[in-house]
Amino acid sequence: MERTSKFALQFHTTFHKKNYKFWRKQISVQGVVLAAGEGTRMRPLTYTRPKVMLPVANKPILEHLIIELKKAGFEEVVLVVGYRDETIRQHFGDGNSLGIDIKYVTQRKQLGTANALKSASHLLEDEFLMLNGDAIVNSEDIKKVISGKSMVLAVKEVENPQDFGVVEIKDGRVVRIVEKPEKPPTNLINAGVYRFTKDILEFVEKTPISRRGEYEITDSIQLAINAGLEFKAVKIDEWIDVGYPWDLLKANKEMLTKIGEGRIEGEVEEGAVIKGNVVVGEGSVVRAGSYIIGPTIIGKNCVIGPNCFIRPYTSIGDNCHVGNAVEIKNSIIMSNTKVPHLNYVGDSIVGENCNFGAGTKIANLRLDGREIYVSVKGKKIPTGRRKFGAVVGDNVKTGINVSINVGTLIGNDVFIAPHVKVEGCIEPFTRVF
């Protein structure tokens, strides 16, 4: 009896190993990620890149999401792309670098999430997971959504449900989805993560155009519910949503707290101080007198210092220069940007290929200490932040001693002359004197 049991166990183990990949593919759900939108609320950063390619902890938002899908067991992802899709295709290619197969579908006109799904209908399997590419969800929550057999809508409990699509549930099932209601019936919102079967396509075809001029998947789901199909509501724990540029700072902070122990792949000269979890990329040099506090990440081939101060929750991209007497705090500095001498950058996002003249400084605190508002086309938008500096687009150049006030948005390819005070919203390709 014992010999038989050992044989059975050995056979089972061998069979399982040989057929693991086949078994996993049989039970896994296909991943479909919507990444076609521009993200107009993220301007000026999205004038030159799609929203999903904005960096958080030195990786595009979309890359963080794909990594989590890989951790959850996904072997293939279909990316629905559109606006500046070449940026996405060039970065990810066939997905080999991330260990996952990536296929692409082009949504010719960005006509909403239901239209995006329709664009991918010829590639869909019987069951699939659909996600918005501009929010980060962790692998454990993804596993919760794909478990079971029913269609699922992921929900998240938030303090400001009026800013999102609010979900009413009864006995664990979705009853109704209400977009941005003045008086939310619950504080559960639609997290943009769905487990579908191909049955949803029937209702996608019937979806009318919304008041926003789009075909929206939430309307398709409501039609399906009204027709008697059931959607299970699954609460997820982690959901990092990026609606406005300043939300990148919150997302960056959350992702930097997960970098684990710091690692030095470049060179740190004697006399430099590294405290906490700090990542220094390959080919980068931290010169003497630099003081860096983690969690912070510095990309490849950067020159840091001498004698600069980099404070926590800062991400610095590849090929950057942070020079003498520069202080950077809680900010995102994108690749190929130079902040070379006598600069202060606090609570800000600075795009690619920028160069700050000596003495250029960004303010990040109102004198009265109140919440900072951003002015966009004459409309004031609250940031929800007491400390917030500026959002600077790509290819911006400033002269010496430029002062950039709190809440300033600077478009791409702007030139700012020496000794100028800048505030408000500066359109792309402007010359400021």
Rounded to the nearest angstrom, the distance between the terminal CA atoms is: 91 Å
Radius of gyration: 24 Å
Which spans of ≥5 residues are poorly predicted at pLDDT below 50? 1-27
Strand line-up across the major sheet: 14-17-20-23-26-29-33-36-39
Share in β-strands: 25-35%
The figure for the number of domains is: 2
Largest sheet: 9 strands, parallel
Q: Which structural category fits the helices and strands?
A: alpha/beta
Question: CATH class of the largest domain, please?
Answer: Alpha Beta
**SS elements, strand count:** 40
Account of the protein in words:
The longest helix is centred in the N-terminal third of the chain and has 17 residues. Helix 1 packs across helix 2 and helix 7 packs across helix 8. The chain is built from 9 helices and 40 strands. The protein has 2 domains: 226 residues, Spore Coat Polysaccharide Biosynthesis Protein SpsA, Chain A (Alpha-Beta Complex); 179 residues, Hexapeptide repeat proteins (UDP N-Acetylglucosamine Acyltransferase, domain 1), CATH 2.160.10. The strands form 10 sheets. It has a 9-stranded parallel beta sheet with strand order 14-17-20-23-26-29-33-36-39, with helices on one face. The chain has a 7-stranded mixed beta sheet with strand order 5-4-1-6-11-8-12, sandwiched between helices. With 433 residues, the protein is α/β, with parallel strands linked by helices. The protein is globular, with a radius of gyration of 24 Å. The N terminus is likely disordered. Helices cover 20% and strands 32% of the residues.
